[in-house]
């Protein structure tokens, strides 16, 4: 099972070890055409963990949008919510994501609410290839249980909050270019499956084929 705390920057992974082939990676890179690859989804879906692993295989830098926002603001996401409110956070998030998408090609993990904001969503859809890591409620609960750094889960029953977020956000996430269903597979198996899906999401001419339902 993918556990966020297990996903460290020093993990060793390469094409031979993962059982992937160079032509899979080449097809993905050709399909991206220099565009950034953006992972979206709810908290606990594994965006940072899998995004970091996929970036390593694609030989691209990985960036966590929330970390960029914290650096720009000089305080934590939780503090931004507490001191300035969610709307101010979303404004800053939009500016940071716009800057990143206008920069060099990377693999980017966004916060759970980024794709929900229309202007941010349009930026992602216009300038990148987006992948929704879709996970069910039980899996998300397991991965977020006992963690205090997620502001949206700190003001009520976490399970009900996540259930409500699934109801309101999943129909919007469905607009992503590619949809990947998470399960309890290891992070390595999930990485490989995401890469295979990505490779199969481009036709022979390198055009994107929308996947998932």
Q: Could you please describe the fold and organization of this structure?
A:
The structure is a single chain. Helix content is 50%, strand content 10%. With 213 residues, it is an alpha/beta fold. Strands 2-3-1-4-5 form a five-stranded parallel beta sheet, sandwiched between helices. Helix 4 crosses helix 6 (86-101). It is globular. The protein starts with 14 loop residues before the first helix and ends in a 14-residue tail after the last helix.
If helices are DSSP runs of H or I spanning 4 or more residues, what is the number of helices? 10
Which structural class should the secondary elements be placed in?
alpha/beta
Mean pLDDT: 87
Radius of gyration: 16 Å
What is the count of β-strands?
A: 5
Biggest sheet, spatial arrangement of strands? 2-3-1-4-5
Per the principal axes of the C-alpha atoms, what is the gross shape? globular
Distance between the termini: 23 Å
Low-confidence stretches: 1-16
User: What is the helix fraction of residues, given as a range?
Assistant: 40-55%
- Beta-strand content estimate: 5-15%
H/E element sequence:
HHEHEHHHEHEHHEH
Largest sheet: 5 strands, parallel
């Amino acid at each position: 099972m993918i556990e966020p705390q297990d996903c460290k920057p020093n993990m060793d992974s390469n094409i031979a070890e993962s059982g992937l082939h160079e032509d899979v990676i080449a097809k993905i890179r050709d399909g991206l055409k220099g565009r950034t690859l953006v992972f979206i989804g709810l908290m606990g879906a594994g965006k940072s963990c899998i995004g970091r692993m996929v970036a390593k295989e694609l030989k691209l830098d990985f960036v966590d949008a929330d970390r960029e926002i914290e650096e720009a603001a000089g305080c934590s996401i939780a503090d931004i919510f507490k001191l300035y409110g969610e709307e101010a956070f979303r404004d800053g998030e939009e500016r940071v994501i716009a800057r990143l998408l206008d920069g060099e090609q990377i693999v980017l993990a966004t916060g759970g609410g980024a794709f929900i904001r229309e202007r941010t969503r349009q930026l992602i859809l216009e300038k990148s290839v987006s992948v929704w890591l879709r996970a069910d409620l039980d899996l998300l609960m397991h991965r977020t249980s006992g963690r205090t750094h997620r502001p949206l889960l700190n003001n009520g029953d976490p399970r009900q909050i996540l259930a409500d977020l699934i109801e309101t956000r999943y129909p919007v996430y469905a607009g992503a270019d590619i949809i990947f269903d998470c399960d309890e597979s290891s992070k390595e198996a999930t990485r490989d499956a995401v890469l295979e899906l990505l490779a199969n999401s481009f036709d022979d001419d390198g055009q994107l084929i929308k996947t998932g339902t």
